[in-house]
Amino acid sequence: PMNICIVSTFSCSFEDFNAWVEVCREKASSFITDHQLAKVDEHKSMLMLNCIDMDKLEAFLSTPEMLAWDQANDCVDTVYALEQIS
Asked: Is residue 8 within 8 Å of residue 77, measured between CB atoms?
C-alpha cells in the first residue's frame, strides 16, 4: 500500500467537489482502502489516500469521465507519494 496526497484546486464549490469525491470513492473502492478529504479553502482541498494499486489509480484518474469533470470544473490535481519518517 502507498499513502498518497492529492492537492486539488477547482472552480466549483468545495461542497460540489466533496460530492464528486464521494462518487469517485465508490468507483475506486477496489484499490483505495481509506481516504480523508480536508478543505483548505472554498476552491482547494487535500485528499489523503491509502492506495493498494497505483496502476489502477493512474488509469482511474485518466478516464474520460474524470478528465471531463476536471475540465468542466477547472480542476488541477497535484499528486504526492508520502513516506513515514521514523
From this structure: yes
**CB neighbour class for 34 (10 Å; exposed up to 12, middle 13-18, buried from 19):** exposed
Picking from 50, 48, 42, the residue whose alpha carbon sits closest to that of residue 14 is 42
Give the three cell numbers for residue 44. 482547494
Q: 25-49 pLDDT, tens per residue?
A: 999 999 999 999 999 999 999 999 9
Q: What is the CA radius of gyration of the chain?
A: 12
| Pick from 16, 13, 82: nearest CA to 51 | 82
Q: Any residues with CB less than 8 A from the CB of 18 and at least 6 apart, and which?
A: 37, 39, 45
- pTM of the complete model: 0.90
Q: Which three cell numbers stand for residue 21?
A: 469525491
